[in-house]
Amino acid sequence: MAAESCGAAFERLVTLGKVTSVYGVRGWVKIYSHTEPMDNILSYSPWQIKLEGRWQAVEVEQGKRHGKGLVAKLAGSEDREQARRYCGAEIAVERSRLPGLAPGEFYWHQLEKLNVVTESGEKLGRVDHLIPTGSNDVLVVKGNAESVDRRERLIPYLPEQVVKEINLETGTIRVDWDPEF
Fold first, then answer.
1. Model-level pTM?
2. Which of 1, 27, 118, 138 has a CA positioned 20 to 30 A from the CA of residue 111?
3. Which domains does the chain have, with CATH numbers?
Protein backbone atom coordinates (compact mmCIF):
# COMPACT_ATOMS: atom_id res chain seq x y z
CA MET A 1 0.00 0.00 0.00
CA ALA A 2 1.30 3.44 -0.82
CA ALA A 3 1.77 5.98 1.92
CA GLU A 4 -1.44 7.82 2.71
CA SER A 5 -2.79 10.41 5.08
CA CYS A 6 -3.57 9.53 8.65
CA GLY A 7 -7.36 10.10 8.50
CA ALA A 8 -8.75 7.43 6.16
CA ALA A 9 -6.02 4.92 6.92
CA PHE A 10 -6.39 5.15 10.68
CA GLU A 11 -10.06 4.16 10.51
CA ARG A 12 -9.15 0.73 9.18
CA LEU A 13 -5.93 0.23 11.15
CA VAL A 14 -5.37 -1.07 14.67
CA THR A 15 -2.24 -0.03 16.55
CA LEU A 16 -0.45 -3.11 17.87
CA GLY A 17 2.79 -1.61 19.13
CA LYS A 18 5.63 0.79 18.66
CA VAL A 19 9.26 0.81 17.56
CA THR A 20 11.22 1.93 20.61
CA SER A 21 14.89 2.02 19.60
CA VAL A 22 17.57 0.55 17.38
CA TYR A 23 19.13 -2.80 18.24
CA GLY A 24 22.66 -3.60 17.12
CA VAL A 25 24.34 -2.39 13.94
CA ARG A 26 22.59 -4.51 11.28
CA GLY A 27 19.29 -2.63 10.97
CA TRP A 28 17.28 -4.31 13.73
CA VAL A 29 14.88 -2.42 16.01
CA LYS A 30 13.37 -3.05 19.46
CA ILE A 31 9.60 -3.43 19.50
CA TYR A 32 7.03 -2.72 22.21
CA SER A 33 3.97 -4.90 21.60
CA HIS A 34 0.38 -4.49 22.81
CA THR A 35 -0.50 -8.03 21.65
CA GLU A 36 -0.88 -10.97 23.97
CA PRO A 37 1.30 -12.91 23.90
CA MET A 38 3.66 -10.12 22.96
CA ASP A 39 5.30 -11.96 20.07
CA ASN A 40 1.96 -12.25 18.21
CA ILE A 41 2.82 -8.90 16.63
CA LEU A 42 5.54 -10.70 14.68
CA SER A 43 2.96 -12.88 12.90
CA TYR A 44 1.64 -9.85 10.99
CA SER A 45 3.43 -8.60 7.90
CA PRO A 46 3.45 -6.13 6.40
CA TRP A 47 3.18 -3.70 9.27
CA GLN A 48 1.79 -0.25 8.68
CA ILE A 49 4.35 2.14 10.17
CA LYS A 50 3.54 5.78 10.82
CA LEU A 51 6.42 7.96 9.67
CA GLU A 52 6.21 11.74 9.40
CA GLY A 53 2.44 11.63 9.87
CA ARG A 54 1.84 9.10 7.10
CA TRP A 55 1.26 5.33 7.15
CA GLN A 56 3.39 3.11 4.96
CA ALA A 57 3.68 -0.64 4.57
CA VAL A 58 6.91 -2.23 5.80
CA GLU A 59 7.69 -5.94 5.52
CA VAL A 60 8.99 -7.75 8.59
CA GLU A 61 11.95 -9.84 7.40
CA GLN A 62 12.68 -11.41 10.79
CA GLY A 63 11.59 -11.05 14.38
CA LYS A 64 12.23 -12.77 17.68
CA ARG A 65 12.05 -12.53 21.44
CA HIS A 66 15.11 -10.95 22.99
CA GLY A 67 15.35 -10.89 26.77
CA LYS A 68 12.03 -9.52 28.06
CA GLY A 69 11.17 -7.86 24.75
CA LEU A 70 11.15 -8.23 20.98
CA VAL A 71 13.46 -7.25 18.14
CA ALA A 72 12.71 -7.16 14.43
CA LYS A 73 14.49 -6.67 11.13
CA LEU A 74 12.45 -4.56 8.72
CA ALA A 75 12.91 -4.67 4.94
CA GLY A 76 15.16 -1.89 3.65
CA SER A 77 16.82 -1.37 7.01
CA GLU A 78 20.37 -2.62 6.63
CA ASP A 79 22.24 -0.63 9.25
CA ARG A 80 21.79 1.30 12.49
CA GLU A 81 21.19 4.64 10.75
CA GLN A 82 18.48 3.24 8.46
CA ALA A 83 16.81 1.58 11.47
CA ARG A 84 16.87 4.85 13.43
CA ARG A 85 14.19 6.38 11.17
CA TYR A 86 11.64 3.95 12.65
CA CYS A 87 12.30 4.89 16.30
CA GLY A 88 9.13 6.10 17.98
CA ALA A 89 6.92 5.01 15.08
CA GLU A 90 3.57 3.34 15.75
CA ILE A 91 2.98 -0.14 14.34
CA ALA A 92 -0.49 -0.99 13.03
CA VAL A 93 -2.21 -3.64 10.92
CA GLU A 94 -5.44 -3.74 8.95
CA ARG A 95 -8.43 -4.46 11.22
CA SER A 96 -9.57 -7.13 8.77
CA ARG A 97 -6.40 -9.13 9.48
CA LEU A 98 -7.18 -9.63 13.16
CA PRO A 99 -8.51 -13.07 14.08
CA GLY A 100 -12.20 -13.40 14.88
CA LEU A 101 -13.32 -13.56 18.49
CA ALA A 102 -15.79 -15.77 20.32
CA PRO A 103 -19.12 -14.21 21.31
CA GLY A 104 -18.66 -11.93 24.33
CA GLU A 105 -14.96 -11.32 23.62
CA PHE A 106 -13.66 -7.91 22.54
CA TYR A 107 -10.45 -6.33 21.38
CA TRP A 108 -9.31 -3.38 23.49
CA HIS A 109 -9.66 -1.00 20.54
CA GLN A 110 -13.36 -1.88 20.41
CA LEU A 111 -13.86 -0.78 24.03
CA GLU A 112 -11.94 2.49 23.79
CA LYS A 113 -14.20 5.56 23.43
CA LEU A 114 -17.33 3.69 24.54
CA ASN A 115 -19.59 5.52 27.00
CA VAL A 116 -19.71 3.99 30.47
CA VAL A 117 -22.97 4.11 32.42
CA THR A 118 -24.04 2.63 35.73
CA GLU A 119 -26.91 0.18 35.98
CA SER A 120 -29.11 3.09 37.12
CA GLY A 121 -28.16 5.06 33.98
CA GLU A 122 -25.65 7.55 35.43
CA LYS A 123 -23.00 8.54 32.89
CA LEU A 124 -19.48 8.04 34.21
CA GLY A 125 -17.56 9.04 31.07
CA ARG A 126 -15.78 7.30 28.22
CA VAL A 127 -13.17 4.57 28.14
CA ASP A 128 -9.90 6.35 27.43
CA HIS A 129 -7.71 3.23 27.46
CA LEU A 130 -7.17 -0.04 29.30
CA ILE A 131 -4.40 -1.13 31.63
CA PRO A 132 -3.24 -4.74 32.05
CA THR A 133 -2.66 -5.50 35.73
CA GLY A 134 -1.98 -9.23 35.70
CA SER A 135 -5.07 -10.38 37.57
CA ASN A 136 -7.54 -8.45 35.39
CA ASP A 137 -7.55 -5.53 32.99
CA VAL A 138 -8.73 -2.09 34.09
CA LEU A 139 -10.89 0.38 32.17
CA VAL A 140 -9.60 3.95 32.50
CA VAL A 141 -12.79 6.01 32.29
CA LYS A 142 -12.54 9.76 31.92
CA GLY A 143 -15.52 11.94 32.71
CA ASN A 144 -16.86 14.50 30.26
CA ALA A 145 -19.54 17.21 30.19
CA GLU A 146 -22.31 14.56 30.12
CA SER A 147 -20.85 12.62 33.07
CA VAL A 148 -21.75 12.71 36.75
CA ASP A 149 -18.41 14.51 37.14
CA ARG A 150 -15.21 14.90 35.14
CA ARG A 151 -12.85 12.76 37.17
CA GLU A 152 -10.91 9.73 36.02
CA ARG A 153 -12.06 6.34 37.29
CA LEU A 154 -10.29 3.00 37.24
CA ILE A 155 -12.92 0.29 36.80
CA PRO A 156 -11.91 -3.38 36.82
CA TYR A 157 -12.77 -5.17 33.60
CA LEU A 158 -14.58 -8.10 35.19
CA PRO A 159 -17.35 -9.35 32.88
CA GLU A 160 -20.53 -10.35 34.71
CA GLN A 161 -19.20 -9.05 38.07
CA VAL A 162 -18.59 -5.36 37.24
CA VAL A 163 -19.05 -5.11 33.47
CA LYS A 164 -22.66 -6.13 32.96
CA GLU A 165 -23.11 -5.39 29.25
CA ILE A 166 -21.08 -4.18 26.27
CA ASN A 167 -23.11 -2.90 23.35
CA LEU A 168 -20.97 -1.89 20.39
CA GLU A 169 -24.03 -0.77 18.41
CA THR A 170 -25.06 1.83 21.00
CA GLY A 171 -21.47 2.51 22.03
CA THR A 172 -22.03 1.78 25.70
CA ILE A 173 -20.68 -0.30 28.54
CA ARG A 174 -23.07 -0.84 31.46
CA VAL A 175 -21.32 -1.38 34.79
CA ASP A 176 -22.22 -2.23 38.38
CA TRP A 177 -20.15 0.58 39.88
CA ASP A 178 -20.71 3.22 42.53
CA PRO A 179 -20.36 6.68 40.89
CA GLU A 180 -18.66 7.91 44.08
CA PHE A 181 -15.62 5.69 43.43
1. 0.71
2. 1
3. 4-96 (2.40.30.60), 108-175 (2.30.30.240)
Q: What is the mean pLDDT of each run of 10 residues along the chain (181 residues)?
A: 40 90 97 92 94 93 94 96 96 90 88 95 93 89 79 94 96 95 84
Q: By the 8 A CB rule, do 139 and 130 touch?
A: yes
